Amino acid sequence: MSAETRILLFALGALSVWYIVRWTLLERRKSKAPVSRPGALDLLIGFVCNFFDALGIGNFATTTAIFKFRRRPVDEDVPGTLNVGYALPTVAEALIFIAAVNVEVTTLVSMIAAAVLGALSGVGLVNRLPRRVIQVGMGVALLIAAMLLLATNLNWMPGGGNAEGLTGGRLILAVSINFMLGALNTLGIGLYAPCLILCSLLGMSALASFPIMMGACAFLMPTAGTRFIRAGRYDLRASLGLTLGGIPGVLAAAFIVKSLPLLWLRWLVVIVVTYAATLMLLSTRRRTRIPRLAGSSDLS
Predict the structure, then answer these.
(1) Would the pLDDT of 298 be above 60?
(2) pLDDT of residue 33
(3) pLDDT at res. 62
(4) Chain-centroid distance, C-alpha 239
(5) Based on C-alpha coordinates, what's the Rg of the chain?
(6) Are 266 and 152 contacting, i.e. CB atoms less than 8 angstroms apart?
(7) Is it the case that residue 105 has pLDDT exceeding 80?
(8) Three-state DSSP class for residue 129
(9) How far apart are CA 208 and CA 193, in angstroms?
């Protein structure tokens, strides 16, 4: 393991500690009320979605679909809940894959840094967006995720090459696109699948893309998550469930199961996510009723 890789792993560990402390302090400042503990279903969602995330299914789209079916949290809090709750499980994934897979250091660090900067620029915008805009954005994000999964199932995804890194114009292009993917990640559009496609199109091996996409999310989600926490644009109970259930799910997938025949599960996810996207977009058509004032007609 190179010295640069050790520094990256140490930085992830330090970031995790900072994130836990920051999350705790921000919540204590906001309210003195006791924190509602996550229920068994919250923990199960975190475990299952992160288990399959570590195996390559992804967790943003599947979790958003589950949230939509449960009708909790409210739509405008879903992006924040995902980024806050999945930060630490994603760090666990990144630690495992960065330590196990060789990637050229300049490519790894520059693409991770670009995604983090994109997330920091995007989260401020998401925190100010109204409910309907977020519903449209999440609906479109779910449709994109469904199409990417469909392309995977039909073997339309690019095969990639054998490179462990990028140079010159290809590296500049990859860094620029990863900046945009980092910004979109704060809206709930998962970075994994687009980053995998990007790396494959530029000639990198599929395996080499895993430390990049997981490392990028591991660094950007804690930094973006703290801004969602500070703004109060997330569901604390659901986020705790994703975190506390998610870390064991990642460890079980990485060290116990390692691989599963996932084709039929991916087809099921395509159907479920498409249905959830339809529900999300249909929600934008519901008109908000205005309370009736005394002596006035119904304005709804």
Answers:
(1) no
(2) 63
(3) 85
(4) 12
(5) 19
(6) yes
(7) yes
(8) coil
(9) 13
